[in-house]
Amino acid sequence: MATTTPHAAAAHAKHETGPSRLVLNWLVLCGLTFATFGFSQLPISPGMHLAAALTISTVKVVLVVLIFMHLWHGEGINRIVFVTSFVFLLLLMFFVMADVVTRFPLSNSRIPPMPQVDQKMMPSGMPPGMSNVPQGHSGGPGPSSGEAGKQ
Question: Would you kindly state where each structural domain of the chain is located, as residue ranges?
Answer without folding.
Answer: 18-73, 75-104
